[in-house]
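Researcher: Going back to the complex we discussed earlier. I've cleaned up the inputs and rechecked each line, so this should be the final set. Can you rerun the prediction on the complete assembly and write out the structure?
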Amino acid sequence: MKNIFIILSKEIKTYFASPMAYIVAAAYLAITGFFFVASVSDAFSEATIRGYLAGATFFMIFMSPAITMRLIAEEQKLGTLELLLTSPVKEAEIVIGKFLASLVTVSVMIFFSLYFVILLYIFGDPDSGPLFNGIFGLILYSSATLAIGLFASSLSPNQIVGLVVGSGILTSLTIIDFISTRVSGIGSDILSFLQLGASFSVFDLGSLGVAESGHFADFSRGIFSLIDIIFYLSITIIFLLLTILVLESRRWR
Amino acid sequence: MIRVEHFYKNYGPYPAVIDVSFEVLKGEIVGFLGPNGAGKTTTMRTITGYLPPTSGNITVSGYDSVKYSLDARRHIGYLPETVPLYLDMTVIDYLSFMGKIRGMNSKWINQRINKVIDHVRLGDYRNTLIGKLSKGYRQRTGIAQAILHEPDVLIMDEPTIGIDPIQVVETRQLISELGEAHTLLISSHILPEVSAICPRVLVISDGRIVADDKPTNLSSRLSGTERIELGVSGVNNRDLISKIRTIKSVIDVRTDNRAEQLDNAKKNNYIPIVVDAKTDGNSSEKIAKIVVDSGWGLKNLTPLPMSLEEIFLQLTQEK
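Model: Rerun complete. Updated structure for the full complex:
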């Protein structure tokens, strides 16, 4: 536990000591702000954050791997991974510490975007259920995407490889519902179950939204859905385990 | 402190290390010598617990490197070949992180950081970003992290590679100082370095240990001959050489043509010669006896170690 905290605090320090975190945060606020405004600027629009959630889930396909790409790749490149792994620290502690650091960083960004919510309460009468459910779901969703990004970062000492592979996996899990409508039977069910939540239809500004059949749909409607919570937690845990396996794989080679 | 027993390591089907056994006792400084790709780094990585052995046992400070890996690691300070540094941290931040990750409490860390920084002479750079340090100073930072937690065993993989000659000398001196308090295992493919620092040398070639001895003993033991530098006055060259040839164990006698020797000889007025003899013949004694019995002046009688390069080539090309 103590080691996890040591790694976590070191990584957070590194994030906020470099311009990277601020640039990504600025982009996040700008892009989600655009979708938020687009969704509430009509004369009779609903006071919801569905536009924000759609923009955020979509942007995280690229942002999460960008945040996690250096976490393990850089340690491999600098040779510091060898140092960590010859210190009295377990692989799992390293992976969890780094994952939590990225989750804290993203949560801070989400926190700063909450002024959207305050605006809604000032100028409208929003339904609190979908609001807080949506934010809660967004944190779960980001943890799944960050775990995937961290896994991608462990595959190569090259950060760009981590970014491309991570975004690739996330994009696949996003367009998977498009594919699932074109196959039949159980295959279709499985594919659509894997849909992570974001939707490329976010660019259709008329129907701003998240994937209708995806795991994020219920959160953005304000429904507290246990199966979706379990889905995101499972994805997170599976990819963290895979990352630990990649680090341990040096032992079998 | 370090005990390696019948250690084998395969990478896939390729054997990298074959049946290596050795022991490093407390306080020893051992040089690990071999050409590139001989298995030095693999052996060191296995001792530090980074890689598991394919078979065989390795213990560090009494802890098995696989079963009690975390305990073993606590007793090891390790400097890998590429010095592992976070370039965006200052020296102090880096050392303090390394201390924490090794389970040191903050009081101990603060105490040690100042000592260690003084020890490796990094004082002026304690708040400098590591990315801005020169290679030699990065090397020192790497050594500083390795000794921070007062480990019993210090393992350094090619500690002087890629730094300039002045810093090489300083680093060597630093390593020699470290040997006073730690058990040291240092790898290198640079021969003079090992003979300068290490009283004991393990030579590894193609994954096997081919020699384990003092640098000075290696020569005589392996070639079966020793070389003696001799300076005699009061006699002419020919008489001296023919007289020494009569000793049974002597293989060859010739004039010493090295410039430095000739100078010395001229200054002190003696004849310099070199004698190659079998190691088991007590040649030095016999030579001294002949010279003295003949009434000549014995000015110099020094056993010469064969140069490490010669031994090394012999050892690694034997098969």
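Model: Worth noting: The two ends of chain B are 32 Å apart (CA to CA).
Researcher: Good, that matches what I expected from the previous run.
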